[in-house]
Amino acid sequence: MKENFKSAVHLILMRDNKILLQKRKGTNLWPGYYALPAGHIDVGENQYDALFREAKEELGIEINIDDIINDYVVLRRNYFDIEGKRIQPYIDFYFEVRTYVGIPKIVEYDKCEELLWADINNLPAMFVNYEGAFLEDRTIKTYDCKTDGAYKKIKKI
Q1: Residue 35 domain-assigned (yes or no)
Q2: Count of domains observed in the chain
Q3: How many angstroms separate the CA atoms of 59 and 37, rounded?
Q4: CA 46/CA 116 separation, integer angstroms
C-alpha cells in the first residue's frame, strides 16, 4: 500500500537564545500547547512559498530565501487517532531564519492566543512532542509520533 504524505513548514526564529512559540487554539490537534509557527503546504506551493506565506499569515512578517540559515526535513509517522480518525504521516520542513522584516505579532487570533519567546533549553511543559524532539536533536530524519501529547525532554546520561 502506498502512503500519502501531507507536508508542513515550521519556522524557527531565535533571539538571544530564545525561540518564538505560538500557543495554539481553535484546533483539534494540540489546543493549548505551544508550538513553532507552522502551516500546511498548499496544493501548487513548494516549501519555500508556504514558508513565506505562513510567516506573513501567522506573524505578519516577511522573509525571503536569503534569510534562511538552516533547513531540515523530517518524516513524521503518526501512530495515533483524533476523534476516531487516523492522523496521516507528514513531511515536515523546518527552516531557521536569521532576519525578517516586521515585528512578529498574532495575526490569526482564531488559531493563536499567545506569542512567547521561550528559552530554547527550557521549553514550556505543554509543547508539541514532535517539534520538541526535533529541536533537541536536529539530526533526526524520522519521528514516530505515538500521541498528541506533550514533549518530554530526553534525559542524557
Answers
A1: yes
A2: 1
A3: 8
A4: 28
Sign, CA dihedral 113-57-41-70, equals: negative
- In a domain, residue 151? The reply is no
Q: Let me know if residue 134 belongs to a domain.
A: yes
What DSSP character marks residue 65? G
What is the DSSP code (8-state) at residue 11? E
Q: Whole domain around residue 82: which residue ranges?
A: 6-145
pLDDT tens digit sequence for 96-142: 999 999 999 999 999 999 999 999 999 999 999 999 999 999 999 99
Using alpha carbons, select from 47, 77, 70 the residue that is nearest to residue 142. Answer: 77
Confidence of residue 84 (pLDDT cuts 50, 70, 90): confident
CATH number for the domain spanning 33: value is: 3.90.79.10
